[in-house]
Amino acid sequence: MSGSGTTADDDPPLQTAVWRLRSRACWTDAAALLEPHAATDPALALQRTALLTERCLYTGTGWTDADEALRTAEALAHDDTGRGAAACERGYLAYASTLLGARDRADEASVALSRAAALLPPSAPGRALLYFRRGLIAQNLAGAPQSARAAYTRAHAGALDQRDTLLLSFTWRQLASLAFQEGDLAQARHGFAQSLRIREELGYLVGTAPALISLADTETEPAEAARLRAEAGRLFRLLGGVPTWLAPHLEPPDPHTAEAN
Prior knowledge:
This protein is mainly α.
């Protein structure tokens, strides 16, 4: 999931509370705050779906809850923009299910994102997010890095135009991952560093540990790489072992440190 992660002073209190819970991996609690409104408000129904989908992606659990929320959002969509946004969420949930091996929904993901592309107007704010998600499918399911790069580049430009800083952290990260795969460590390090900076500034804790690990992978100084990995491990344990797929990339904590915590 990606989208605005700001908590500016003029944000509605509900959105501020939802963001703080989301950023600390409390997706179920955040979704519960939205539930009374999501039954009738199309935008909040979509937001609730996105929260529960992110929970699936980071924990590998909660698929039924996310699917139920998605069906509600789809039922509430009343115009092409709303239906396109709901299709984009369906595509992302199907992508996450396929990526994590919960159930192969690759065809559903592609069809849903194609439907979103047909429904969303060219100037719709959701276009940047759609480009990003099409890039994920191209990179991680289709094995097409050039198509992924083109999609991420369009998403990056859209995030800049919309000042969507959280989405920008994701586009930096994915462009950097392509550079890393191609052996361009300098470009990869720059992109991962930008992604980490944004996530730290926003307080997006659940996304900070993966950013630290990615940056450590490009670090040429062993001591700095170890420091980044140690900080990632600390955050991982602080959030209760989330994201679950990060565990194999972390070293066991020092016994003295673990005992002290």
